[in-house]
Specification:
The chain is mainly beta and 470 residues long. It is built from one helix and 34 strands. The strands form seven sheets. Strands 20, 21, 22, 23, 24, 25 and 26 form a seven-stranded antiparallel beta sheet that branches. Strands 1, 3, 4, 6, 7 and 9 form a six-stranded mixed beta sheet that branches. The chain has a five-stranded mixed beta sheet with strand order 11-13-18-15-16, with no helix packed on it. The longest helix has 19 residues. The protein is globular, with a radius of gyration of 27 Å. It starts with a helix and ends with a strand.
Length: 470
Amino acid sequence: MKRAGIILMVLLMFRIFSNAQTGASCATAIPITLDSVLRTYTISSSTGANLICTSSGTTSITYFKITSNSSAQSMLLDITGSAGQPIEVGFYNGVTCNNGAFESASSICLYDGTGLWAPAESFSISPNTTYTLRIKTQTTGTIQISGQHYTPPNNDCLNATELGTILIYDENANHMPGPGVTPAQLCAATLENTAFYYYTVETDGVSGVSFENLTCDNNYGNNMASLGFHFGLFTGDCSSLTNIGCHTGPPFDVQFNIGSLPAGTKVYMAMDGISGSNCYYGVRAINAIILSATLKYFSGWKTNETNNLKWVSLKENGNKTFEIQRSVNGINFVTIGQVSGQINSKNEKTYQYNDAAPPDYCFYRLRMVSTAGKYSYSDIIKINRGNNIKTRILSSNITNQLSLLINGQYKENFAIKIIDNSGRSVKTQVATINSGENLIHVNTGSLPEGMYYLILSGDNYKKTFPFLKS
């Protein structure tokens, strides 16, 4: 009887565990890890009717859940179903699925069975919050999903992506309405998700842009009048753009040329989806300077001790080296390291570089050097490691005790480490500080006489204090 009870308990536990992520209901939604890895999921046996799309019938539905990060970045999913069958993605504002939580503006119809999903520009994402997706497919089987936290690098003119003559692929699904341009300048009635680009005219004459391999989706069904994209071209600079042409149309390939411009002219472009269409596309410039490398983004992240620089190249054309350059004023840059490029590549490549000894406030850029010795620069990014925490040692000549005065902004844990002149760690401890003035004591009685360094580290703070033990 006892053995039978154990077997029954194991079976019940297995049933509970197996039901936990079946996706058959909102309560058993399958978690999607937002790490850019493409995974295959089994479609559940549950069925339901359409929520927003025009396809009729009661077919398979599977529930998934995604969780925002602490920075409340937008979320991007790349979805592919079976055999090109239509897919409906319904979005719920939370972990419960009821009429009050359903967000129609952030739901989408993928009539060709593949496409991009992102929350609508009108939806405000909360940090560390779980949301639910109900994905309806025409058939059972499997579905492939790749997800990531994503902040568009080219969401405004100042951070426009540079175009060359080689086709690069991008999307506008996570973007916000374009700042600095009007709908009329893009042949549009409204702007919802605008991506910015620019190129430099190579020789005097006609230039333009080419969009290729376009696919667009939104929740207006397969009505071509509400599906597609529009864009505008501009000269000048981001503070004062002059419109020189625009185009609108369904998601078909298009090449748009503008009148003769002198060599060296910088041309900006803003691209927006019709009625908030999420579009995936290839884009290139015509009569433009050839780039040794085209970047998807260049970003910097603070760790406790380093600045971690990350970038993705979309295409590389004779690109030999990425030189990492740093500046303390945003004007005068010095090279602090380099990473080898791929020379020639048509595939995305992720790079990173750790600045092990960054100043409290600095600027970075990439210098991309071709095999022919020509070079171009990335956008400039800045990282501020400092904050309003004020810290000082009450005396620089220490005997048995070191006293540290810390004026904090909020409650926070700090790591305290003392190293000797050779860099060897001789003492560590953790201190909790509160908002306002805090006095922290560190026992130094066991340390031999000599020169030492106290390193104070917090979540977004690191500072080194030299002191003499006598």
